[in-house]
Amino acid sequence: MQQILIVEDEARLASILADYLQVAGFATHWLDEGGGVAAWVREERPDLILLDLMLPGRDGMEICKDVRAFSTVPIIMVTARVEEIDRLLGLELGADDYICKPFSPREVVARVKAVLRRTSGQTPQDQGLALDPPTMRASLDGCNLDLTAVEFKLLAFLLARPGQIFSRDQLMERIYADQRIVNDRTIDSHIKKLRRKMEQARPGCDLIRSVYSVGYKFEPDQG
Ligand code: CA
């Protein structure tokens, strides 16, 4: 049985989430403050974390950073702060998805299942990739890729959503805080440089594919 860690300081909300997740066939564990989360995750290795942003003890972003230092466990950030900058920060920290409060518990269960489907089996390590969000350093087959901040964000974003195709507009919305400074050709040029750097590390590497007239996706090597 897959175990979901719920980190949420509102007891009523946590108990509703736990009920719905248990009915959907998951085991759950609840922590109501941020201080002990990383240690608990290291010890118990849950299959996914639902992580509230505003917590006593240690906030969701710090926890995300702590956990990413030793684990690729899927993390869904839960936040009442919907500003784009928070989403972006969450993305830079390596979260896999976001849910905005208020939410329906049904929607949460659906997102948990979707993230688990997306992330099961294939980890960045399986693809020879290692990403360190705090320093924005990435390596492929042990070679440092020497990415710019934008290239790193593009890679991290696509990598977290394998097989999903994103248009240039969608990538721009998720990568840039200020969209006035870019146009869709800019995305093409960043992707081109990112792919060139990956090919230098691994000749013939086509982990990032362009989908004609649509956009881009990360396509994991199977096997
Ligand atoms: Ca909270």
What does this structure look like?
With 223 residues, the protein is of the alpha/beta class. It has two domains: 3-119, Rossmann fold, CATH 3.40.50; 124-218, Winged helix-like DNA-binding domain superfamily/Winged helix DNA-binding domain (Arc Repressor Mutant, subunit A), CATH 1.10.10.10. It has helices at 11-23, 37-44, 60-68, 84-92, 105-119, 149-159, 168-175, 184-201, and strands spanning 3-7, 27-31, 48-52, 75-79, 97-100, 129-132, 137-140, 143-144, 166-167, 208-211, 215-218. The protein has a five-stranded parallel β-sheet with strand order 2-1-3-4-5, with helices on both faces. A three-stranded antiparallel β-sheet has the order 6-7-8, with no helix packed on it. It has a three-stranded antiparallel β-sheet with strand order 9-11-10. Helix 1 (11-23) packs across helix 5 (105-119), helix 6 (149-159) packs across helix 8 and helix 7 crosses helix 8. The chain is globular. 33% of the residues are buried. The mean pLDDT is 85. Calcium ion binds at residues 9-10, 52, 54-55.
Ranges where pLDDT stays below 50 over 5 or more residues in a row are none
Order of helices and strands: EHEHEHEHEHEEEHEHHEE
| DSSP helical segment count | 8
User: In percent, how much strand structure appears in the residues?
Assistant: 15-25%
Which small-molecule species are bound to the chains here?
A: calcium ion
Side by side, the strands of the main sheet go 2-1-3-4-5
